[in-house]
């Protein structure tokens, strides 16, 4: 799986950033593509997560296909999930299709779940 890029340069202590990042990943794993029984994090749909010093968060993500039926809803679902993280600031979710998603971005766990070996 190509892990999303997570900005590590911060005024937050390394421990604070690790704890906060863990909470963000946990929140992202609560969002599922309605057509696939795997969460968006394990599917490799999250490309980048930037955490500002004030804990504002910007996420770059994609979909499995540009014409995905939930294209209009998915950013809102991600924003809602992340907004529940304690201490989080503003949340921005940006959709991108560059680079296009491929199954190579999926974690081993997701491939196993979908019998893609």
Pick out its properties.
117 residues, alpha/beta, GMP Synthetase, Chain A, domain 3, 4-stranded mixed β-sheet, 4 strands, globular
Q: In a few lines, what is going on in this structure?
A:
The protein is of the alpha/beta class.
List the SSEs and their pairings:
Blueprint: E1 5-6, H1 14-28, E2 46-51, E3 57-61, H2 74-83, E4 91-95, H3 108-113
Parallel strand pairs: 1-2, 3-4
Antiparallel strand pairs: 2-3
Written overview of the protein:
By secondary structure, the chain is of the alpha/beta class. The chain has one domain: GMP Synthetase, Chain A, domain 3 (2-Layer Sandwich), CATH 3.30.300.130. Helices cover 26% and strands 15% of the residues. The chain has three helices and four strands; from the N terminus they run E-H-E-E-H-E-H. A four-stranded mixed beta sheet has the order 1-2-3-4, with helices on one face. Strand 1, helix 1 and strand 2 form a beta-alpha-beta unit. The radius of gyration is 14 Å and the shape is globular. The mean pLDDT is 90.
Question: According to CATH, what is the class?
Answer: Alpha Beta
* Helical content band: 25-40%
Mean residue pLDDT? 90
Counted up, domains total 1
**CATH-defined architecture:** 2-Layer Sandwich
